């Protein structure tokens, strides 16, 4: 909003002061990211800027730490020819690649589960005849409020104690998804359920915000024309709330992709994710490779948030609101 020509001197001072404050807050928030990115190209194994980097000397920059993401954990000579067999070895044995595969696999299914359950809950809570709406909403949104360490501790004890006995029909059917003791702890399914629990509140919030501008008369018009509830949902409701559903799903995926506390409590050696691998790298042997993966995660997060913003604008256009 431009400063009006009739603004008083005090209003002009506040106009520019407010923008300076906003700029300082923005720099304060973005400074860690601006520091991490160039440091990931440092040729030296340091977490600080070298003289060559400060002098913008090309010899002070390198992609060695990005290359480490591919070679760490691979039993191959450094001068090995990077042919098809080498890349196959990297795909199977590289520590960071295995962590990335776990993160994507867990994040994908956690997002699907959180999106389905969160959208269903939001649709139910949006109906005025729904009893105890406020109480149910508070319970479903509690994972956003309760400290994650408390949730992770509770999930750990729940997953470790609630084990199916050996020889049980249900245990035999679910054996590929459970641990050797028949528990959810130390399994991909356990982490997926935990991350879905953390992602559901984001889906509920985004879908509920989309439903706030939904015209309920469209449902009545659809019913009056002979459409059954299923047709109404997929032909009328879903296309209009789809931007909110996708936005909530993206938030759920980012939440799962960046989560480390629940993984530390629940995951076993085979469920190593990128955040947990970063934690292990900081705790055991500090390497600038952590800065490289952090830079990649920042780029992914920025891309997902940009997608959320584009979907928000599309949702507003569908509701006839001018995007802000």
User: Rounded to an integer, what's the Rg over CA atoms?
Assistant: 25 Å
- What is the makeup of the main sheet? none
Q: Tell me the series of helices and strands, N- to C-terminal.
A: HHHHHHHHHHHHHH
Q: What is the SS-derived class?
A: mainly alpha
Oligomer: single chain
Which range does the strand content fall in?
Answer: under 5%
Distance between the termini: 12 Å
Total count of strands: 0
The rough form would be described as globular
Helix tally equals 14
In short:
The chain has 324 residues and is mostly helical.
Keywords:
14 helices; 324 residues; mainly alpha; 69% helix
How would you characterize this protein structure?
The chain has 14 helices and no strands. It is mostly helical and 324 residues long. Helix 1 crosses helix 14 and helix 6 packs across helix 9.
Give the SSE map.
Layout: H1 9-39, H2 51-54, H3 64-71, H4 84-93, H5 95-125, H6 133-145, H7 148-161, H8 169-173, H9 188-211, H10 217-224, H11 229-258, H12 261-266, H13 274-284, H14 289-318
